[in-house]
Amino acid sequence: MKRKYILILVLTLTLLFSGCGRKKSQFKTLQQIQQEQGIPVRVKTVELETFVQELIYNAALSGREESSGQALVSEVVNSVKAKIGDRVTAGQIIVTFPRNTPSAQYEQALTAYNAAKTTYERMRNLYANGAISRQELDNIETQFKVTEANLNASDKMINVRAPISGIITSISVSPGERSYPGQNLFTISTTNGYKAKIMVADKDALKLKIGTPATATWENITLTGNISKISLALDPYQKAIPVEVTFPSKGHSIRFGSTAQIKLQVLAKPNCIVVNREHIVNENDKQFVWINQNNYAIKREITTGLDNQLQFEVISGIEPGEQLIVEGMSLLTDKALIRVIE
Q1: Which among 5, 195, 242, 293 is least buried, having the fewest CB atoms inside 10 angstroms?
Q2: Phi–psi pair at 162, nearest 5 degrees
Q3: Considering the entire predicted model, what is its pTM?
């Protein structure tokens, strides 16, 4: 009986090990699978398209038209009557200074104006009744207009108004802070479009002209515009040419001050074969691409022309209609079997 149990145990172990061996032999390596089924790749059919050469910059978007309110006196700010983001109209008071600001002499100007106005109105009545001559009235009117001009000048010094209608994009003072003459107190931008100022290298500026097409991309919004101004002189600090690009808003609401990617289109060449830089292999100062030829990978030397840093114009080596391998290239060898996947 004991010998029978030993025999059953031996047979069981034999079957187990032989089963494991068969199961193990059924596994295939990745290399074996690729040799049998082909290396998985993705392809793109080569087509003629327009090769675009662009200059790319990052710049803040501001209003198409901007204007600032400036301080005319050295004085403590009395009040700020608006905040960033407010829509204001031309002539609206934004920042005030005290009426008794010495350099403005507002109180004196107001007193002189009121006195001159009273005299002028009385003299007009006398002239209407024939009591004084036209020359006397003209003299009084001249004095009145002088006091009116003085009052307006004093008013501008203590009441800084919005120079244009639009949205306040910045305020640089608060009540209680002292300003100085010439200081920008606030900036207003119009809402009829956007503007970007970029600095372009001298050699690149030669490729640009007024009207050169441009795009501005912020997140998922793209604006289309063009170059509106090119400076004739280098910026002395940045040693580059200031260029201004404008874009219509077309209903988009991008916050002023947002940084967008600006692209200036300096060349558009139609009917070209265009290949992305990452799909080109560089070896020994030569350039190659991988082509799908009847489900085999073929390494093809190419000649390139223009480039825009991200793409190349291919002059020779591939033709429209061929299938360019765009994914899975790192696993390829020349004439290797491939399997195209969607």
Answers
A1: 5
A2: -70, 125
A3: 0.62
